[in-house]
DUF4399 domain-containing protein (Dyella lipolytica), 146 residues
Amino acid sequence: MKRLLLALALVAATSIGSVLAADAPALPVTKATAGTEVYIISPQDGATVPQSFTVRFGLKGMGVAPAGVTHENTGHHHLLVDVKVLPVAGQPIPKDEQHLHFGGGQTETTLKLAPGTHTLQLELGDTNHIPFDPPLVSKMITVHVK
Ligand SMILES: [Cu+2]
């Protein structure tokens, strides 16, 4: 009898484990193409810019495709504004004022920022807005908004 109870307890523990795992299903993650480079073409790091300015996105080694389009070796840009901690792996990049999605396949944008010092960084996301593995990010640059 004791042995049976132990077996039942184990079964219960195992099913609880799978229920917990099912709570946060792992989304498919796309492998980054080796040698890919994401970079901000302009403005330059340390530049002084007006409150409304253009940011140009650079990408080498992979192509740009709109979100929702599954095409090998492609992704779309995300502009991270004043983001200090990169979006988590395996989950869609947040969509808010600091995480701008360019799901239409845009390669530049006009950004409006409050005066002061801000940081900008690009991150390429896959068709489901999930960061690549390893993450494809540009160098973080600083701009001074007049
Ligand atoms: Cu996106």
About this structure: Residues 67, 76, 78, 93, 101, 103, 125, 129 surround copper (II) ion (CB under 6 Å). Residues 2-23 form the longest helix (22 residues). The chain is about 15% helix and 40% strand. Residues 37-145 form a domain with the Immunoglobulin-like fold (CATH 2.60.40.10).
